Amino acid sequence: MRVPRFDAAGELVHDGPLIGAALTRVLASGRFIAGAEVDAFEREAAGFLGARHAVSVGSGTDALTIALQPAADRHPGGEVVTSPLTFAATASAIVRVGLRPRFADVDPDTLTLRPDLAAEATGPRTAAVLPVHLYGRAVDVTALRSAVGPGTPIVEDACQAFGARDAAGRACGTLGDAAAFSFFPSKPLGALGDGGLITTGDAELADEYRLIARHGCREQYRTERVGFNSRLDALQAAVLRVKLARVDQGRRRRAQIAALYAARLDSVPGLRLPADAPGHAWHAYTVRIAGGRRDTVLARLRARGIDAAVQYPVPLHRMAPFADPRPCPVAERACAELLCLPIWSGLGDDRIDYVAQELRDALRTAPVA
Predict the structure, then answer these.
(1) CA geometry: angle at 282 spanning 186 and 144, to 5°?
(2) Closest CA to 198 of 187, 185, 216, 210
(3) Cα separations (Å) of 277 from 84, 122, 135, 281?
(4) What does DSSP say about strands 53-57 and 196-200: parallel, antiparallel, or unpaired?
(5) Using CA atoms, how far apart are residues 215 and 280, in angstroms rounded to an integer?
(6) Which among 65, 105, 92, 61 has a CA at the least distance from the CA of 315?
(7) pLDDT at 306 exceeding the cut of 80
(8) Residues 201, 53: contact at Cβ < 8 Å?
(9) Which of 87, 278, 345, 368 is buried most deeply by CB count within 10 Å?
(10) CB burial of residue 140 (10 Å; 0-12, 13-18, 19+)
(11) How far apart are CA 176 and CA 154, in angstroms?
C-alpha cells in the first residue's frame, strides 16, 4: 500500500469545485495583486482567529521576518530567544533582520519552548521571544509571558498551527504581541502555493508590518522606510477563503487520526507517542523511537510504501549559520528519535491501520544500536 505523508490532491476532493469557481472569479476580475480578494481574506482570517489585525504576505518565512523587524529596529544587534527544535526558517528570519538566535531547550513532553529556560536565556540584549507552536501544539504563552516578564515582546511562530488553540480555548495567533502563519500546501490551512499571514492586536504594529511588506510605501513611489515586496496574490487568497471554511473540520479529522494512531500504537515497546492536548492542530503526528533504531525503522517503512519523515534531524543550534555552543540536551535527543507518520484530513482508516501495523513490525525486528 502506498501512503504519502501528505496528499495535496486528496485534500481538494471536497473543495475542488468551489476552488475552481473562486479561481475563475479572480481570472475574470483581472486583479491578481492585492484588491478585494486579498482584503476579504485578511478580514475573514482575522475573524476566524479572533485577531484584531491581519496582514497577508508572500510566505511564512516572510511573515516571521517582517513580524520581527520592529523588535530589530528597537534592539539592533540584539537576541531573540527561541527553540532549537524547529525548521530553519525560524532562525533564518531572526538573522535576516540583524538579530541573533539565543536557544533555550524544550520540554520533553510537549517539545515546545520551556518557559523557565526561556526566562534564563533573556537579558539586556533580548529583543523578543519567539516560541514555536511545534507540529500544531500550542505553547503555553501565558506561562511564558509570566516567566519572561511583561516587557519582553512575544512573537508566535504559528506557521504549523493555524486553527490550533491553547488550553483556555484561545487561538494561536492571538496569544502574543504578534504571530506568523504559513500557508504552504501541507499546513493546516494550505494554499496552492506559498503564502503567509501576520496577526497582531496592535494597530501601529499592523501598519508597520504592512508598510515593510509593501516596499515601505503607503502611496506609490513614496518610500517611508526600507521594505521589500511580500504580497499574497489574489488567486491564493481566493483559494484560502474557500479552505478557511473547512479548517475546523480538517483539524477535527486530524485529531481523530491522531487518536486512531494512539489506540493502535499504545504500549508498543520502544515507542513514545506524542502527548495530546485540547486544540492541537496535528500538523504532524510525531512519535519517538529510542535505542538508535529510528533510521532503521524509517528505512523499513519507506520500503513498504509509507512516506514517514524525520522532522527535524538536526537541532538549529548545531547548524553552522546559527551555531551556539550552549547545550540543549532535550532537543538534541529528540532530533535523534523523532519520526513523523503520515497525517492529513483525507487519510483513510485502512491506511492508518497499515501504517500502525508496519511500524509495529519494524520495531519488533529493528536491532538496538
Answers:
(1) 110
(2) 210
(3) 22, 28, 12, 9
(4) antiparallel
(5) 36
(6) 105
(7) yes
(8) yes
(9) 345
(10) buried
(11) 5
pLDDT tens readout for residues 324-341: 999 999 999 999 999 999
- pLDDT grade, residue 10 (50/70/90)? confident
DSSP 84: S
Phi first, then psi, for residue 275 (nearest 5°) are: -75, 135
Using the predicted structure, report yes or no on whether residue 368 has a pLDDT greater than 80. Answer: no
> Of these residues, 75, 133, 145, 187, which one is catalytic?
187
Cβ 51 vs Cβ 174: under 8 Å: yes
Q: What pLDDT sits at residue 52?
A: 98
Environment class of 123 (CB within 10 Å of its CB; exposed 0-12, middle 13-18, buried 19+): exposed
Cβ atoms of 167 and 32 within 8 Å: the answer is no
Q: Is 342's pLDDT higher than 80?
A: yes
Q: In the prediction, which pLDDT does 13 show?
A: 77
| DSSP one-letter string for 109-135 | TT-SB-HHHHHHH--TTEEEEE-B-GG
Note the maximum CA span of the chain.
66
The yes-or-no verdict on residue 313 having pLDDT over 80 is yes
Residue 187 bears catalytic tag = yes
pLDDT reading at 366 higher than 90: no
Q: How far apart are CA 305 and CA 3, in angstroms?
A: 6
Residues 6+ apart with CB under 8 A from 141: 131, 154, 156, 166, 175, 176
Q: Which 3 state secondary structure label does DSSP give 19?
A: helix
Fold of 247-365: Aspartate Aminotransferase, domain 1 (3.90.1150)
φ/ψ of residue 205, rounded to 5: -65, -45
Whole-prediction pTM value?
A: 0.96
What pLDDT, on the 0 to 100 scale, is given for residue 117? 98
- Please check whether residue 23 is in contact with residue 326, taking contact to mean a CB–CB distance below 8 angstroms: no
What was the pLDDT predicted at 15? 87
**Extents of the domains making up the chain:** 8-244, 247-365
Q: How far apart are CA 222 and CA 220, in angstroms?
A: 6
CATH (one of 3.40.640.10, 3.40.50.720, 3.40.50.11810, 3.40.1360.10) for 8-244: 3.40.640.10
Q: Are 222 and 79 in contact (CB under 8 A)?
A: no
3-state DSSP assignment of residue 71: helix
